[in-house]
Amino acid sequence: MNSSSSVVYTESSSPQNILNGVNVPITFTGYTPTVTYTYTTDYNLTLDEIDADPSDNEISSILEVTSGIYARDDNTVTGSLGVGAGTSAQLGQEFDILVMQDIESVTFEIVNDDESLNGTTTYVTIWNMVSGIPNSIIAQTETVIISGINQRYTANISGGAYSLSPSQYLIAIEEGTSSISIATTTDIFTPGTTWINWPASPNGTWSNNENFNFNVSYIIRPNLQNSILSVQENQFGNNDISIYPNPSSKFIIISGINKNESYKIYNVLGAEINSGIVSNNEKIDIQNLNNGIFFLKFKNGNTIKSMKK
Description:
The protein is an all-beta fold. It has three domains: about 1-65; about 70-225, Jelly Rolls (Sandwich); about 230-309, Immunoglobulin-like (Sandwich). It has strands at about 40-45, 60-65, 70, 80, 90-95, 100-110, 120, 125-130, 135-140, 145, 150-155, 160-165, 165-175, 180-185, 195, 205-210, 215-220, 220-225, 240-245, 250-255, 260-265, 270-280, 280-285, 290-300, 305-309. It is elongated. The model is unreliable at about 230-240 (pLDDT under 50).
């Protein structure tokens, strides 16, 4: 079901003969979300035989499909900017990170009207900044191959998501021997936030675009996720710690911990809304929480997503 409780997908497995004390894996074709929602999946077990405890024949999981996109444009392309063929360079845009974030990928648009860039490659680098100037590369994306006219690309961070502490960062396109032209906009422009650097630069280092009379912003967008909320979805039978019932309206029970554990509860904005200490199979009262997604994070690092309904 989607956020409106409308059923978007239903599937039944093939019948299984399960012997006493034996685990049997059941595989589904599955459903791929196509829009941002909070999805609830109900798993229901039906038996031909008499069940001594039918209360444990249903379980739910929650999947929140979201995107956190930072942009300095309004999606209106009015031009492009590059340095020139045969000159390696970086063209980048500055972003302020206000809370701990994981950068997962970067989306950018390449202008390739004559398709002369087909088959060439580029990638994105993430720079820290010192005293307001790009300083050094701290992460980069995987390489993408340019193909087609005026395409938008999303390049994943090499090695997985990279955590960014609150600070200023530059997200830059790497221009090699080809003249990479980045799509730009004049509709939204903030002085001091767009940068360009190449060996033959008159200033010999990073400079803002407006210093060259280019009052434009790039179509360069980092895709980020609050690091507190960047957790794997619960997988049945694979997690040491589990939570039930899920969703719940009054309380949740924690199982799979061997000793008392400190925990904190966060809302979807990453704000702490509750905390305490819990033991194995102990109830946590959630009646005072607002309805919706919340995250239970333990001191040992385990994080579980749940829902108050």
